Each structure stands twice: as C-alpha cells, then as structure tokens.
Amino acid sequence: MTQVKKFWPILTGTHRYEKTLSTRNHGAGVIIDAPILAYLIETSNGRILYDVGCDYTKIADPVLRKQFYEHEGFPFGPPQMTEEQRLPNRLAELGLQKEDIDVVFCGHLHFDHAGGVCEFCGAEVHVHEKELEAAREPADEAYFKEDFDCPVNWRVYTGEYDLVPGVRAIETPGHTAGHMSMMIELPKGSPILLAGDAADLRENLEREIAPGLCYRDDETQALESIRKLKRLALETGADLWPNHDMAFFESKNRFPKFFE
Question: What are the Metallo-beta-lactamase domain coordinates in residue numbering (predicted)?
C-alpha cells in the first residue's frame, strides 16, 4: 500500500532557449520558455524532493552569472529565477522549512536539477552511481562541479528501487549516464510517472524524439528510455509527465494546493 499522502509540482524558475535543446534535431529557430521544476512528495515516512532546481547565487550574482552562464557554452544565457522562487521560499509557503526535507532525489545532476542541493545539506541525496561519475568528469557543460562544493550527504545507488512504498526510482539513461525517473502512487487517482529529462516535452513522448543533449552524443539509450516510460505508463495506468513543457505544467499547476 502506498505511503504517499500529498504531491506538489513546484515552479522554481524558467529557461528560455531554442527548442532543439529539448527535441534533438527538431525545432531550429523556435524559442521556448521551459519551466524548471521540483516535485515535493509527502509520505507517512517523511518528505522527498525530486530535483531541487538551480543554485540561485549563480544567477543573482553578476560575477558568478558571467562565469557560469554568459559564455559560448550557454548561447541562450542563464535561467530566470527570482528570490521568491528559491525552493526554501516555496516550501515556506507550505509552512515547511528546508530541514523538513528528508530525501532529495536527483533525477540527474545538471545545473537546473541539482544546483540547489546545497540548500538541503541535512537531507539524504539519492543519485545513480553512473550519474555521479558523469558529474565528476564532467561529461558535459550542464554539470557544474561547484554545485557540490558543500557537504552533500550522498546515497549512491544502482538499479531501480523503492524509496518508500509507493515511490519508485526508475532507470531511464540516455539524456545522461545515470538519469532516473520516478513513479508515484497517489492515495487517490492514477499514479504519476515523472519522466524527468528523459522527456522534456510531450512531443518527445508522442513522436519518440530524443532530448537534444544525449550522453556521449548517442540517442540510442534515450529513445529506449522513452519507449520504456510509455510501456510502463500503459501497464500501470500512470499519467506520464514531461519535465520542461510549460503548457503541460500550467495544466497541472495547483500550488499551493496539491494532488492526492
């Protein structure tokens, strides 16, 4: 029986960029506004965050912003993130402090998903072994080693596993080496299957298009993971959520209200 009690998608910022970053070899010249999301899962055995967004200081500080975002590796510049959108401040709107988070689950370790991890030094931080290795290389420019300069309480895993009954980590490599999605069984209604960056947009799922950035520039695993997610959603009746689709997010946004 699921231990999940409540579920919130939380907007922590936006990033404006060419669509090809989300749909590989599709969308040249089309600019999209992508939500940067975290997901809060309240269970009878603690609170879990799937992803934690960007490091606010690297966006707000002009020197750090120039160092990390204003160069040829980021042709579309930094994300947009306000003080209000910092995840601890969003949690405060729910009457929570960052110390109330027990587990941070990083679907992967790119800057817009794990940059805020230092806000939650007291929590366990779950990550796939291959993902941590890729971040430490780093395997691509979307990994910021400096995001992990703080003391991080890593819990390193391989394979799929249940964090608690009703919350399951799903292996979906391809965008990155150790990318993980998550299945959440709600107490009411259909399960929610968070694709993470295995599928940025509904188009990635519907047309089976790989993300723009693929590990080692090979889309094979990414396409296999998209098909895996679609099969799993069909088998379980889960609602499959892409991760950077603004129209989809706005159709689901209830904050500060929740899903149950």
Answer: 35-244
| Residue that the structure tokens 């209604």 belong to | 189
Coil/strand/helix, residue 33: strand
Using DSSP's 3-state secondary structure scheme, residue 54 falls into: coil
Q: Is residue 257 part of a domain?
A: no
Residue 42 to residue 120: CA distance in whole angstroms: 16
Question: Is there a domain that residue 133 lies in?
Answer: yes
Q: How far apart are CA 52 and CA 10, in angstroms?
A: 10
pLDDT at 73: 86
Q: Is the pTM of this model over 0.85?
A: yes
CA torsion, ordered 90, 18, 241, 154, to nearest 10 deg: -60
d(CA 166, CA 83): 33
Give the model's pLDDT for residue 165.
98
* Among the listed residues 17, 24, 51, the one whose alpha carbon sits nearest the alpha carbon of residue 119: 51
Amino acid (one-letter) located at 123: A
What total number of domains does the chain contain? Answer: 1
pLDDT digits (tens, 9 = 90+) for 53-110: 999 999 999 999 999 999 988 999 999 999 999 999 999 999 999 999 999 999 999 9
Q: Which residues pair with 155 in a beta bridge?
A: 126
Structure tokens at 121: 């030094």
**Do residues 130 and 100 make contact, with C-beta atoms less than 8 angstroms apart?**
no
Can you give the residue range of the structural domain that contains 158? 4-252
Q: In this predicted model, what pLDDT tens digit does every residue of 127-148 receive, in sequence order?
A: 999 999 999 999 999 999 999 9
Q: What is the CATH number of the domain that holds 177?
A: 3.60.15.10
> Residue 153 pLDDT more than 90?
yes
CB 27 within 8 Å of CB 20:
yes
Give the span between the Cα atoms of 171 and 159, in whole angstroms. 7
